[in-house]
Design brief:
522 residues; alpha/beta; eight-stranded parallel β-sheet; 16 helices; globular
Length: 522
């Protein structure tokens, strides 16, 4: 078998830097805070950190409105701090992945300021300007077009009006943005997660989008239309191929695409026989499926069957745009989700705090920071609840800060925090450590075949197999015991930590909300 690259073996840990660790007591996390917690990440066993945007920004969308792609916002530190963090990660064997935000800039970016200065500006065509708007909608609700008094036209923004969309059909835009990639690659970063990759190209005729037949009153306004002409355009794949070619100028780098599309469309972002695609188009199926054995079986089966030849799978358990997994499925099932993630084939991505079962935090209306929620209050688009500060200990600031945190802390942080979980050897944190260590020690869990996938009432069952080893994974996604048959084996790891090393033969009972990894007899 061909030797795997680092990113194929990797467990990636997403850090939302505002909420990970504050080092200067201003209530906002920063680069030096990440540096302070690197040894924790090494002990957890992850391979790479993905840092969401830390570029200079007015923070209209908390860094996803970039004003300078080649700098560090003072909120997070300095370029020297970034270089030191990169160096310390290298020394610990950790890879660093940055967020790349190519669809739009801040309206304070020098490119946009020049673009709007006049219709004759050399950078006018760097953005999408029209005399009359069409019916395209912003992802955050309302029209995707904003009238600009300075130059007398409308500009397109897929998100906030403070986030004007770039024109990726313009070769000068592509050249400038590819140079941004090279700037960070030359500094030594190991890859990029590309924000909203599927939105980067729009219809050049600006046709109106058709109405969505499934739209229901009360849903977000951005669901009224089908985004036929302003997302997932065929031309985007040539742009992704050029982006991939930039990374391929360097050794061992990874290109990851954020893509929210149905499975068959998602697969096109791996590329084709003539165009290379992303190394990893993010797979969000675990974030979106119902929590039942049959539903999870179905999405795993559909995804694995859809993978193009040679494509490498990946799985995401949580991120900064979706409800935390422990909120979605409940605390008792969080250990099952952990075992599921860490026994699936391919590259895996965790979200900070999921290893201690952090849950969504209720945010009072007066404390809301997320512009998505402010734009459409009551629709439930807000992402603040899953972005609250990391719970390190039981001190007043949860070990995150000595100041007032930028978002409220979870009310249960005194009980549920890293220090408390470290002292409890049956905790979810210890389970994550053991699962990651097991994955590193047994090659079938990374690259072995996935066989025998089935759902038996609430029990999800599958094997991970190579030429010499067979591992059976049993996950009870319900709360009643389930019996299943096997020829015989030894429990390597149980979610309750009380059956490790136990021999099992013929019939094994899997308790409610219990998971087992069993080394099967040959």
């Amino acid at each position: 078998m061909q030797k795997l690259t680092w990113w194929q073996r990797a467990i990636i840990y997403e850090i939302y830097p505002r909420s990970f660790q504050d080092s200067n007591d201003d209530g906002i996390g920063d680069l030096n805070g990440i540096l302070r917690r690197l040894d924790y990440l090494v002990q957890l066993g992850i391979d790479a950190i993905w840092i969401t945007p830390v570029y200079p920004s007015p923070m209209a969308d908390f860094g996803y409105d970039v004003a300078d792609y080649c700098g560090i916002d003072p909120i997070f530190g300095t370029m020297w701090d970034f270089d030191r963090l990169l160096s310390e990660c290298r020394q610990r064997g950790l890879k660093v992945i940055l967020d790349f935000v190519p669809n739009h800039t801040s309206d304070q970016h020098p490119w946009f300021l020049e673009s709007r200065s006049s219709r004759q500006s050399a950078k006018r065509d760097w953005y999408l300007w029209r005399d009359q708007p069409n019916n395209w909608l912003s992802q955050f609700g309302g029209s995707a077009w904003e009238f600009d008094q300075i130059s007398g036209q409308y500009y397109c923004h897929s998100f906030l009006k403070e986030q004007p969309d770039l024109n990726w059909r313009n070769p000068a835009v592509k050249a400038a943005m590819f140079n941004v990639l090279r700037f960070w690659l030359d500094r030594g970063v190991d890859g990029f997660r590309v924000d909203v990759m599927w939105l980067m190209i729009k219809d050049d005729q600006f046709h109106d989008n058709p109405p969505s037949p499934g739209y229901l009153l009360g849903q977000s306004s951005n669901q009224r239309l089908l985004s036929v002409f302003n997302s997932d355009r065929p031309e985007v794949h040539a742009v992704v191929a050029e982006m991939r070619a930039v990374l391929d100028e360097y050794n061992d780098r990874v290109l990851i695409g954020e893509i929210y599309l149905p499975v068959q469309r998602l697969m096109t972002y791996y590329g084709s026989a003539t165009l290379q695609g992303a190394n990893l188009p993010f797979n969000f199926l675990l974030l979106q499926c119902a929590w039942s054995a049959e539903a999870v079986r179905a999405i795993i089966s559909e995804y694995m069957a859809a993978l193009p030849p040679g494509a490498w799978p990946n799985w995401v358990l949580g991120n900064h745009d979706n409800a935390r997994i422990a909120t979605k499925i409940g605390i008792r099932q969080a250990s099952i989700a952990a075992m599921l993630l860490l026994t699936l084939p391919g590259t895996l991505t965790m979200y900070y705090g999921d290893e201690i079962a952090m849950t969504n935090v209720a945010i009072r209306p007066e404390d809301v920071k997320d512009p998505a929620e402010k734009n459409q209050p009551g629709i439930g688009m807000g992402r603040d609840p899953e972005r609250t500060p990391m719970q390190w200990d039981s001190s007043p600031g949860a070990g995150f800060t000595a100041a007032i945190p930028w978002l409220p802390l979870a009310p249960d942080f005194v009980r549920d925090n890293v220090v408390a979980f470290l002292t409890d050897h049956t905790s979810l944190l210890h389970l994550y450590r053991k699962l990651i260590a097991l994955r590193r020690s047994l090659s079938p869990l990374v690259s072995g075949e996935l066989r025998g996938l089935s759902a038996e009432t609430s029990l999800l069952r599958y094997e991970r197999v190579n030429s010499s080893e067979r591992l059976l994974v049993l996950l009870n996604l319900g709360f009643d015991p389930v019996e299943t048959r096997l020829h015989g084996g030894t429990v390597l790891l149980s979610t309750g930590s009380d059956r490790d090393g136990q021999r099992v033969n013929d019939v094994v009972t899997v308790r409610g909300a219990e998971g087992l990894v069993i080394f099967l007899d040959s």
